[in-house]
Amino acid sequence: MSELAGDYDLQYVHLHSHRGEGLTNEFKGENISNMVVELNIYESIYNHAITGTLVIADNRNLISNLPIQGTERLTFRLSTKLYNHHFDNSIDFTEEGGHPMHVYKLTNKEQLNDSVQTYTLHFCSKEFLRNLRTKVSESFDGRMDEAVYSIFKRPEYLNSKKKLFFQKTRNSDKVVIPNLSPIAAINLLAKRSLPTNLNDNGGAGYLFYETTKGFHFRSFESLCVTKNGEQVAAVQKFRYVHVPVDTTHHEIVEDGKKVDKIMENYRSVESYKFLNNFHDVAANTALGTYGHTVITHNLFDKSYKKDKYHYHNSFDTTNHTDTDPDRKYMGGPAITDSPVDYDQVEGDAYKQKGVSDFAESRVSLQSTTQYAHGEETGNYGVDVVQDGKLEGERIALTNSISSSTKLHMTVKGHSWLQAGDVIEFDVLSVENKENSGGRPDPRYSGRYIITKIRHKVSNSLYLQILECIKDGVKNTYGSASKSYANIAGEEQREASPHDIGEDTFPR
Question: What are 407-462's pLDDT values in tens digits?
Fold first, then answer.
């Protein structure tokens, strides 16, 4: 067991020349561990490949003597010292693991003195570069996930040897890929993919991304719940609270029990801040997150159709970070559907419009047709009449994820964590403990999904900078059973227009 949280195991960092050698042909790579000033690895559910940087203090002039010119490979294995080197617990970019990183750029070269220079090496996974070198020109027929797997594995395309974690799609279609890079082709398929879920009714659009454990092709919902509808278990719990330390200073007393201090330090958040939250109502209104009208023009029969998306009506048809199948709590939207103006909801004389009732806050037009490839289906490989509804849902889900509550925090390094994992975050409510009872903040505590990770090794310390999101709240806000007039009051007077050319102004 390690002595301190943040300890890590990085036994070697080998830089391999374009000949597969080090400075001499005696070794397959040059061990530059003692030159490393800082190592960073970046992964995100929004990025299709892993990237990283290595800051080097070089006294051997590797740039000229190796040389470094952009076709080198980098091998290393990083793990939290608390655990062994098992695949699930480590970041393995070794030759034995089969997936070295590839250097593609050198920047920030600076000479410190006569014998030392510093620079930054930029590296990436093999698939990052492979994507730039190949193109897909082919038609695919069948389930979307099967087409993605074909592009992912075939030697003439991405040719990846890594593991692909995928979720089956419920839709099939004929798709023509018109000379696109493999990742662009997969992203095209991802936009048109419909996830399998309990009711085969909600959700549209997939994510494709790489983590330190492999590639993922799946819906956002699959990060929240399992295929059986159970809540995905949190892989780690973090908290930003002050807890008492016992007299030995090695263990922490919690609920009358002693907890290992090292393990507690792994749970502790060093710092955090919220980058944004769901309260930007103006932006979400304009983007169509709440209400959206999609007009589909059918090129086959020259008809058109309007579909209106309503955020609150659709919320329960999809799964979210705070979805709770056991109903121990009532998760809900991050904004209420209480009235926000005097407009009446169509067909309801007693209800005035909330944020989701203004369907024309965003209007989109898209063309569709059946029989494009001999099948009586539309853009999503299902009944053409569903295209507008699915497009509105896909756009709204994408917006609600990107503009949801976004937590940025720094913790000690956990080499088993990856983008897409569920974590729990607890922070005490800001009221004094007597009034709050020491309870966690009801809005900002709870389940989050990691969207981005920066693994940072420097100064003998392994840290992770996490960006996490939650697209709802654990306890629903409910709705005000009042009219907008009761909430805001009736407007007292109506202003009349005034000609500025008149001599007098109304008082």
Answer: 999 999 999 999 999 999 988 877 756 665 667 787 888 899 999 999 999 988 99
The encoded tokens of residue 138 equal 């082919």
| Dist CA 151 CA 505 (whole Å) | 72
Contact 297, 467 (CB under 8 A): no
490 Cβ contact list (under 8 Å, min separation 6): none
pLDDT at residue 200 is higher than 60: no
Task: Give, in degrees to the nearest 5, the angle at Cα 229 between 225 and 231.
Answer: 40
Q: Who has greater pLDDT, 76 or 386?
A: 76
H or E, element range at 425: strand 422-427
Domain 8-128, what fold?
Thrombin, subunit H (2.40.10)
Identify the bridge partners of residue 142 per DSSP, sorted by sequence position: 173
For residue 268, report the phi and psi dihedrals to the nearest 5 degrees.
Answer: -75, 140
Per-residue model confidence (pLDDT) at position 437:
62
Q: How far apart are CA 167 and CA 184, in angstroms?
A: 19
Of 115-124, 205-214, 338-347, which range is least confident? 338-347
- Residue spans of the domains in the chain: they are 8-128, 134-218, 236-276+404-470, 281-402
> What token pair was written down for 447?
């389940």
Q: What is the pTM of this model?
A: 0.89
The CATH number corresponding to 236-276+404-470 among 3.10.450, 2.40.30, 1.20.58, 2.40.128 equals 2.40.30
